[in-house]
Amino acid sequence: MLGFKIILYLNNSLLLLCFVLGIIKLKHLDKKEKWYVYYIIFLFIIELINKVFIVFELKNIPVLYPVYIAGEFFILNSLYTKKLGLSKYGLIPLSAIAGIFLIAAQYAGFTIDNDYAKVISNIIIVCLSGYVLIQEIKGSEAVNRFLLVDACIFFYYSVSVFTFIVQHQLAVISQQNASLIWGINNLLSSVVYGALIYKLLRLKK
């Protein structure tokens, strides 16, 4: 449990730092790259709301988790759609799918322990980010300066697919094993934040 808490604090600290740096460096990014900051801002807001409910011991808002799934899906896929140079009309089906995830997760009984919407969302993110990553590897690092971040995102969501598939078993396995699984998940998301912090710090004015 101690290791899990340490990783959780590290994760939250990196997210906060990434959020602050993203706001500061936003004007130095092009239109496509700004979506990385939008992604971090969204995650920060979701995490902040969640922490407020925990601190004040309030009942969690049922719609918060579905909004997280739909928002994460829409932002990341919008990012990679733009990086692939696809038509802006590609955002229409993305919006529709995000809406489906929002409705399904809220009304179909999906929770964090039984979440097929999250699995499907992550699989789509993995496929699209993986394709973008292949295209970026073929190009130059000067042009694709967020290559490292894309690689970390691809790896994180690939592992997350496995994590969410076995989520329904977390209720019956030991607390130690559950903490280990979630600790790994938080550690990998920390790697994503760390990679983004590294790239933001290296941006030239």
Automatic annotation (TrEMBL):
Leader sequence residues: none
Positions of transmembrane segments: 6-24, 36-56, 62-79, 91-110, 116-134, 146-167, 179-201
Keyword DNA repair set for record: no
Entry keyword set: Membrane, Transmembrane, Transmembrane helix
Protein name per the record: YhhN-like protein
